[in-house]
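Final paragraph of the annual report: two paired records, presented back to back.
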Amino acid sequence: MLEIGTLKLKNWLIMAPMSGITNFPFRLIAKRAGAGLVTTEMVSAMGLTRNHERTFRYLSSSPEERPLSVQIFGSDPHVMAMATEIVVEAGADIVDINMGCPARKVVKTGAGGALLRAPDKVKGIISAVRKACPVPLTVKIRSGWSPGQTVACETARIIEGCGADAVTIHPRFVTQGFSGNADWEIISKIKAQSRIPVIGNGDVSDPPRALAMKRETGCDGVMIGRGAIGNPWIFKQILDLEKGLEPTTPELSERKAIILEHFRLLSDLMGEKRASKVMRGFLLWYTKGLPHSSRFRGSFTGIKDFNTMITAMDSYFITLTGSSEIPISKTNSMDYQIFQHETRAGRER
């Protein structure tokens, strides 16, 4: 169990916020797969305060994925405080402040990783948000702006001093992006000086790495990002490994079911046409490492709706089994009607 402020999570595994990835469908699948906490995509504080419809879509949620952490970014303390009130009203169980994003469009506004070069701004933003935030508050940082400018320990002290309930550290520099290796020793140093929970993030690509991070750094929780894309069962595998059980990989039938459910949830959220385009990318991850996946990927561009996706999946999974089993699109002639009914029902909610 992991306690963040007044919130008790069922375990110590947290799904990282990832732009273009961690929308509601992805979060719900991760939650069902065992994540103790899921996090939204990074949400613009300015967009929320200006009532941008597109920005508010990032807050789409359901009780099934709770508890939910909503990550916001910005550079103005007043705007960040106003955005905090908005996301709490929308149902956020935790408010997370991004102070590490390396994306140029974020950094050029003085937000995200740019804040690691402005300790006074860090203090001003966290203090303002803390006053406006009745739920647990967390902050996500990186090692610093660039090699030779490690400020993580100093920034973590400011974060704790301003009343945050936990700090997450991705031990790469902003200028690194996701290149090179994460320096877990920085996580250890922050844990040694902190009285609030410390969550480690970076290079957790499989279950043994998650346990290794926790063991080697002493961190209270582990945040998993890229390792969960197309591999949501990583959370259950980690928990099984922690119990001394052998982690299992999903059967092909389970993998197919998850893909189908992911597509249904995406269609519910954004419509079947747009969901088809988004799903093409996810299918690359869902089939990564499987035999003959490169041959299957050639059919991705032809996916335009539910039926064309099922056709592509049938062709590929039958190749994997090496059998002449009945394609899943033919197993139940009601599949598509059920899909359409569930999608319409979801939109009505």
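The closing record of the year follows.
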Amino acid sequence: MKMKMLCLTIRIKRNDEANGKRLHKLLIDFFMQNKIAGATVWSGVDGFGKRRRSTIKLEGITVNMPLIIEVVDLQSKIEPLLFEVKRMVGDNGLVTLQEVDVI
């Protein structure tokens, strides 16, 4: 049985901060507080965007890699959060939304 849901995708960098905390941690806490069904933070190896390349290498260690946060839940639970998510992310990243079939 398929169910229509939304997938909210947020692309940021590991070192992005808001209010003195790492942005990805703030976002995960925000989604948990709002009882979202699930979210995953994916760590990328390399990437680029309007703020240039997402990696900085120091002695072979990648310091500021790209992160992707995927959130999946019902439209009625995600849509009310979009304004606050965009405010938190600001110009630090890209926020996309797409309808998905959950099986």
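The CA atoms of residues 56 and 88 lie 24 Å apart. This concludes the annual technical report; the extension proposal builds directly on these records.
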